[in-house]
Please model this.
Amino acid sequence: MVSIELLTENNFTESLLDSYERRQEVKKVYRRKNGEYVLVEQPFVEDWDLERRRQIAKKIYSDKYITYIALKDKKVVGFIGLLKQLVGERMILDMMQVSAECRGTGIGRKLFEIGKKEALRSGAKELYISACSSEETIAFYRAMGAEITDNPIKQLADDEPFDLQMICKIV
Model:
């Protein structure tokens, strides 16, 4: 059974994500061509080594984030990291991951719903996502109700030019 908890000093360790399976084999990504997003073949594997896992663990525990972790048998199998500082009426969903072995089980949906509730509590009207352009990632966010925005946060769009800038209205 999976439980979802707010990340706190009581359940955080630097090794929190040491056994986390980030691996994602991407075959197709969205790219903008002639003003539209189209799927193109661009196979690659996304993964994190131990050093990267520890960097991410420290990052999502920082006081800039509101982070929830999904635990299965006391092992992190997913998390969502929201930036506390709103940008206008938007809360930024900065990181959301579900481990390779647990994708497709509903954990992502639960984390996303918690993210929307947290954004609403914080006074946001939209959840903003600078999303990896992989076919699977975009399909997930669209299933959650997110859409590509024509009003991106410039810094995020500039920092990740291949990401799709999306919003999910929460009110």
User: Anything to note?
Assistant: Residues 96 and 166 are 14 Å apart (CA to CA). The chain has one domain: 2-169.
